[in-house]
Design brief:
Helix content is about 5%, strand content about 55%. It has one helix and 17 strands. The strands form three sheets. Strands 1, 3, 4, 6, 7, 11, 12, 13 and 14 form a nine-stranded antiparallel beta sheet that branches. A four-stranded antiparallel beta sheet has the order 2-17-16-15, with no helix packed on it. The N and C termini lie far apart (about 50 Å).
Length: about 230
């Protein structure tokens, strides 16, 4: 278990006390006067007609309702006074150092004897030290050796209860390219869960699937270079 004595205290919240206890409803509707509602929009990555390279297992196309922003995915954080397990936190306001999960129980606060003393859904990030900080008097900050987390820029943070669609690259065998199509809803796999499909390069260089249209520039078993010609719904 990580000792509090090895941690630094998190810095104060920039946007005022209201953001310390934001619920999902507050984030969506703008419940505090100083907090504007999140500007959700239809987001698609990558842009149309831009040459892009993806590696094996990565997404070629991701489209849904949300915001394009920075996210932190925490696989595990076990502190003496707080824990986080497998949650994604999004920067919902440009310039803000706080990240929010749509699970209002994402962060568990613990007492001196290990009992639950509260829940939360936000944390802050210190890029200079690559630390995540829990906004709680006792919990402090955790670096990459004390917590398992990844920080990613310019990805889609999905709005809850909306459909998200993606195509992933699964490698090449001869002239055959392998892909997986996924649909998710609120972070859970929707029906149909996943669908694997293939493309025969000997018959052409354009993929058509679920309304999306991609042109393959080059491909190996480890990576693919391509252009998105059309998204799923446009």
């Amino acid at each position: 278990m990580i000792s509090l004595l090895t941690k630094t205290r998190p810095r104060s919240v920039r946007r005022g006390a209201c953001l310390k206890s934001l619920s999902l409803a507050t984030l969506l509707l703008g419940g505090c006067a100083s907090t504007p509602p999140v500007q959700w929009q239809d987001v698609s990555y990558p842009s149309i007609n831009v040459t892009t390279t993806a590696s094996l297992g990565e997404q070629l196309l991701n489209q849904g309702r949300g915001v394009e922003t920075d996210v932190i995915h925490v696989s595990s954080m076990q502190g003496k006074f707080a824990t986080i397990e497998d949650e994604t936190f999004c920067r919902l306001y440009p310039g803000d150092d706080r990240f929010y999960s749509f699970n209002n129980r994402a962060v568990t606060f613990l007492s001196f004897i290990g009992t639950v003393r509260g829940r939360g859904n936000d944390l802050s990030y210190r890029p200079a030290k690559n630390e995540i900080c829990v906004d709680d008097f006792w919990s402090g900050c955790f670096n990459g050796t004390e917590a398992q987390f990844t920080y990613r820029r310019n990805v889609i943070c999905s709005r809850p209860n909306t459909l998200q669609q993606a195509i992933e690259y699964n490698g090449k065998s001869g002239d055959t390219l392998n892909f997986t199509y996924r649909e998710t809803m609120s972070g859970q796999v929707a029906f149909p869960t996943t669908q694997d499909f293939t493309m025969d390069l000997s018959l052409g260089d354009v993929i058509n699937y679920k309304g999306a249209r991609l042109q393959v520039v080059s491909a190996t078993n480890q990576q693919i270079t391509y252009r998105v010609l059309r998204n799923f719904n446009r």
